[in-house]
Amino acid sequence: MDMVEVYRGPDDERLLLIRSWLDSQGVACVVGSDIVHSVHPLTVDGLGEARVLVAGADAERARCLIEEFLRRGDEGTRDGP
């Protein structure tokens, strides 16, 4: 199966939330990194960023769902009306 990267970031907590969101929407995914974050918890110049991977057939839907998820999160952190 072809796996496609749909999101990359240094924040493990956000990645796990995105993973849970995709799973709840019926999109299977895998979160991976080139290093073990429990040993090296820092990200420097992209080294150590974790990635969310999905099947190629689900990539477009996954990107839309992630965009929606991130937009909702940003709206929840803004001040004012």
Account of the 3D structure:
The chain is α+β, with helices and mostly antiparallel strands. It has a single domain, classed as 2-Layer Sandwich (Alpha-Beta Plaits). Helix content is 40%, strand content 22%. The protein has two helices and three strands. The chain has helices spanning 12-24, 59-77, and strands at 3-9, 29-33, 50-55. A three-stranded antiparallel β-sheet has the order 1-3-2, covered by helices on one side. The model is unreliable at 36-40 and 77-81 (pLDDT under 50).
Supply the key terms:
81 residues; alpha+beta; Alpha-Beta Plaits; three-stranded antiparallel beta sheet; disordered C terminus
* CATH homologous superfamily designation: UreE, C-terminal domain
The description of the largest β-sheet is: 3 strands, antiparallel
Helical fraction equals 25-40%
Mean pLDDT: 80
Shape: globular
Tally of distinct domains: 1
**What percent of residues are in strands?**
15-25%
- Got a strand count? 3
Q: Using the coordinates shown, work out and report the CATH topology.
A: Alpha-Beta Plaits
Q: So what's the CATH class?
A: Alpha Beta
Q: Low-confidence parts, pLDDT < 50 over ≥5 residues?
A: 36-40, 77-81
- How many helices in DSSP terms? 2
Q: Which structural class is indicated by helix and strand composition?
A: alpha+beta
Give the distance, in angstroms, between the N- and C-terminal Cα atoms.
45 Å
The name of the CATH architecture is 2-Layer Sandwich
